[in-house]
Design brief:
single chain, alpha/beta, 3 domains, binds zinc ion
C-alpha cells in the first residue's frame, strides 16, 4: 500500500532579507517533512509566491530546493499548460501557484496541469488543476521505509522520569534572553531581540529532542521484528515444551528410540505444525482481533492492529 501525501503551502512574497529568511525556514520545514517520509509520494501545492520566469531570489531558492529533495515543479513537464494563475486588476499577470511532485509522480503519473480562467471567479488567483494517473504499477514500486520515532506509549515510568530530568538539565544550560522577553513593544523591530528569541526557541527544541533521544524508546519496524500474529497464544507453549524435550534428549545422549526420543519427536512435530498453522491463520487471527477491538471500543489496540495489517499488505506488494 502506497501513500500519496498532499502538502499545501503558502509562501511569503519576496520583499527584503527578513522575508527571505522566513521563506527559507518554510522550505526547511517542507524538506524535513519530505525526508521524514521517504516511502511517500509527495505533492506540494499552493501559492508559492514565486514566478519561475522571474530572475528573483525566491524562484532561484525554490528551484534549488526542488533539485535538493529530488522533486520537480510541474512547469518543467511537457504537458504543463498554464499561462497565468494570478492577476493584478487583470492588467498584470504572473504564475505564482504551483504543483511540485516527487520523482515517480512527475515521471510516470503526470497527465496535465491546467488552469481555469472563469469570468465569475472573485479571487485574484485562478484555480489550477492537477491530473494524475495513479496506476498501481507505478505507485506501488517503493517499499515502506521505517524511520524510528519516539514511542511515548512504550516508555515506562523510569524512562519518563529520566526524560524529565534530562530536559531540565538541558534547559538549565540555556541562557534566558531576558532583554527580548522583557521587551513589551508590540511593533519591536530590534534585530537582536528577534535573533535572541529564535535562538531560545531552537534551544528549547534541542533540549527536548536531545532528552528524548537519550531516554525514550523508539518505534520498531514491524517488518524486521518478524513477529507473527497468534505466536504467543498458539506457538510459544509448544515451542517451550519442544525445547524442554529436545534438551532432555540431548542430555540423554541423543537416543534413536525410547520414550524420550518419542516425546522429543512428538513435541517437535507439534511445534513445527503450529508454526505453519499460525502462518496460515495469521490473517484470520488479525481479523478476529480487529473485530474484538471494535466490539470492545478499544482504540489503542484497534490502531495497533490496523498497523499490522498495513505492514502485511506492504510486504505482500513488495
Ligand atoms: Zn523588542
Amino acid at each position: 500500500m502506497e501513500i500519496v501525501d498532499c502538502v499545501c503551502v503558502y509562501m511569503p512574497f519576496e520583499d527584503g532579507a527578513e522575508i527571505t529568511e522566513d521563506f527559507i525556514d518554510q522550505l526547511r520545514c517542507i524538506e524535513l517533512l519530505v525526508n521524514d517520509n521517504p516511502d511517500c509520494h509527495i505533492v506540494l501545492c499552493g501559492d508559492f509566491n514565486v514566478d519561475f520566469t522571474r530572475n528573483w531570489s525566491h524562484p532561484a531558492l525554490q528551484s534549488s530546493f526542488c533539485d535538493n529533495v529530488s522533486m520537480s515543479p510541474a512547469h518543467r513537464h511537457t504537458e504543463y499548460s498554464v499561462d497565468f494563475t494570478y492577476n493584478f486588476d487583470m492588467s498584470r499577470y504572473s504564475t505564482l501557484d504551483h504543483f511540485i511532485l516527487s520523482g515517480i509522480l512527475f515521471d510516470n503519473c503526470f497527465q496535465t496541469v491546467s488552469v481555469l480562467h472563469d469570468a465569475d471567479n472573485m479571487s485574484d488567483h485562478e484555480p489550477v488543476l492537477l491530473d494524475l494517473c495513479l496506476d498501481l504499477q507505478y505507485v506501488s514500486l517503493t517499499d515502506k521505509v521505517h524511520s524510528p520515532r519516539p514511542s511515548w506509549q512504550k516508555a515506562n515510568a523510569v524512562q519518563l522520569s529520566n526524560y524529565c530530568g534530562a530536559v531540565s538539565e538541558n534547559l538549565s544550560q540555556l541562557d534566558l534572553p531576558t532583554d527580548a522577553i522583557a521587551c513589551h513593544n508590540s511593533g519591536c523591530c530590534d534585530a537582536s531581540h528577534y535573533a535572541a528569541l529564535r535562538w531560545y526557541v531552537a534551544g528549547i527544541t534541542w533540549a527536548c529532542d536531545g532528552a528524548c533521544k537519550n531516554t525514550i524508546p523508539v518505534t520498531r519496524c514491524k517488518q524486521r521484528s518478524g513477529r507473527i500474529a497468534g505466536w504467543s497464544e498458539h506457538v510459544k507453549p509448544l515451542k517451550e515444551k519442544s525445547m524442554f524435550w529436545h534438551k532432555l534428549w540431548l542430555s540423554c545422549g541423543r537416543p534413536r528410540s525410547g520414550a524420550v526420543a518419542d516425546c522429543m519427536r512428538r513435541t517437535r512435530a507439534a511445534y513445527h505444525y503450529a508454526i505453519r498453522n499460525v502462518r496460515r491463520k495469521e490473517e484470520e487471527i488479525q481479523r478476529e482481533r480487529f473485530a474484538q477491538c471494535m466490539l470492545n471500543n478499544d482504540n489503542r489496540n484497534f490502531w495497533a492492529e490496523v498497523k499490522k495489517i498495513e505492514v502485511t499488505e506492504v510486504v505482500g506488494a513488495g
